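[step 3/7] fold_predict: job queued, chain A
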Amino acid sequence: MKKALLLTFSLLFINIIFAQKRAIKITSPDSKRTILIKENKRIRLVTKNKEKISGRFKIENNSILINNQLIPLSDIEGIKRNPLLTTALTSGFFIFTGALTVGFGSIIGAFVNARGFLLAIPGAAMIFTGIKSPNFNKMYKKQKNWSLEIININP
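[step 4/7] structure written:
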């Protein structure tokens, strides 16, 4: 009985020790604001080469792994959250509204006035915007004094 109890407590203790999660801590010394982005969340970042990379990230050593690309923290110029729900909703909204605009423009152009076909221009622009997947979250850039740091978080 004592061995089973000792084994159970030691397993729980080891689990607590190794159950630390990592996160990216983004701080601004000007406003003293701190943002935490936990590991395995979707982010979008810009590197020094102006390359835009998005996806779920993992932390390895002092760098970030996204889509099998290892990016050191020193190469990141800007970072922002990229939640799947807001991406799907904004993209869906723009594509749906653009399709409605093009459809109504075609109906108006065919039956009422030929100028109705001009509604296809803003409709096409809205569809293109929806396909490009807009992200309205704030970008935290190093140019504006935001600093990145990898930290461990206890659950």
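[step 5/7] annotate
Strands lie at 21-28, 33-38, 42-47, 52-60, 63-66, 69-72, 76-81, 140-141, 147-153.
The chain has two domains: 21-82+140-153, 86-131.
exit 0
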